[in-house]
């Protein structure tokens, strides 16, 4: 119908929708604490050694692994404020993805995309290996949580050495609200004979945080052996058949249902546009007296849409003003937030000695900055939605929820570690403290001796010693106070330098997010306007051809268009029923 109506744009859209159903992109995010066998499990799941695995290796960058006939990798990172895209061989991944090759992610890797031929991935599955989360390193867990709403499923990895820890359970409790399709995997069951007892305890803990489906016990070692030998029995014993079945049932099937629903929406929208054009022509054929008026209206609508495509169109002004206001709002919020952090920690340092509370102070600051980053990027998303609605109102078009791009807060603790500014909060040792007392005592005795000579008094030895001791204690207290103030001053300088660096990083990340938003809005509405233009042009062309035809051809055309409209109505009814029925 699209092709015969001259709507090549809609035909391409429906072909893309068909491809989406046949091979939906399904994102499976794999997370877990360090040294739980996460990357090893990813490799065993895919059936290839992709992610770096070693006793001394830890993942520091998000790695997306998808199907590709030609193996290779693409690294996206930031260098001197610019985004750089590099192609890599697979054997060079450890230099960017691991703690050994890329300590504290000093290369500023944002994402690594890997393509490998794999039967497991050929269905459209994309497996995401993430940095470790939990109590050992902060910041990564927040970044992973921010990513989860964009994932179709979550595989949480723990091992059989011990039962789930409170930090792991807290993470799961928050993660399941962002990605309900959770599969918990118990690794290394071949190394720990007591793994069944651990599995029983973990199942109880999972039920308490609302993960009722229990867990899947696996052995990556047995999986590798099974693949090397081609042994189905060992493969079943490894537990990976159960894991793949869970992924298929709870993630892939769910993702395909969503792809079908989205494709059905595209189908219905295209059908409505085709029906609208056919209806105009049928009405003109049924009432020739209005045919010229309808043709004039179509031409006027085409011209109006043409104005929307011009540089001075109102929607472009709305977009430009909205983005400009958003930049100003984010910049103000960022400056105000950093100023508030400085004032707050100045007050904290005025009352605390960094010598004993430096770690607590810095942890609190980093948590505050993570929360501030979430507020800033939430502001960008919300403002982007409001801009989109205003533009849609101006051209009377709808905006899909998937329009807004992903924006993630920077990993605050990475910035802190990369800043390499450690505060020396060690107080004076026993030797220097005793030296202060001795110096104070000596000064006090010397001063008292001078006074007694001046006034002509013969000072008694015990009195001289007592006064000297008092002077010594005062000198010691003054020295301690001076050292405390010195530490406070040093702490303020370090924190302010850190905040300056964080502000620069936040500013760069937020401005890039706003630029991405600007492009997404612009491209979306440009495509919608082009679609409107194509629709009006095709309808006018079809109507013009109908008006120029003889009576016999008009009747044939009217009958054909009537059948088309009837077919579209039936198609929309079936599509709507499938949409309501979950895409079945």
Enumerate the spans where pLDDT stays under 50 for 5 or more consecutive residues: 398-460
Count of separate structural domains: 3
Distance between the termini: 23 Å
The main pleated sheet reads as:
9 strands, mixed
Q: Which structural class do the helices and strands define?
A: alpha/beta
- The spatial strand order of the largest sheet comes to 4-3-5-2-6-1-7-8-9
CATH secondary-structure class of the largest domain: Alpha Beta
Which helices and strands, and how do they pair?
Elements: H1 8-22, E1 26-32, H2 38-46, E2 63-67, E3 72-79, E4 82-88, H3 94-97, E5 109-116, E6 125-129, H4 140-147, E7 153-159, H5 166-178, E8 182-187, H6 195-208, E9 215-217, H7 220-229, H8 232-238, H9 240-286, H10 291-308, H11 314-351, H12 354-395, H13 412-419, H14 430-455, H15 461-548, H16 551-580
Parallel strand pairs: 1-6, 1-7, 2-5, 7-8, 8-9
Antiparallel strand pairs: 2-6, 3-4, 3-5
Helix pairs in contact: 1-9, 2-7, 7-8, 9-15, 9-16, 10-15, 11-12, 11-15, 12-15, 13-15, 14-15
Which short descriptors sum up this protein?
single chain, 584 residues, alpha/beta, Rossmann fold, Four Helix Bundle (Hemerythrin (Met), subunit A), 3 domains, nine-stranded mixed β-sheet, 65% helix, 10% strand, flat
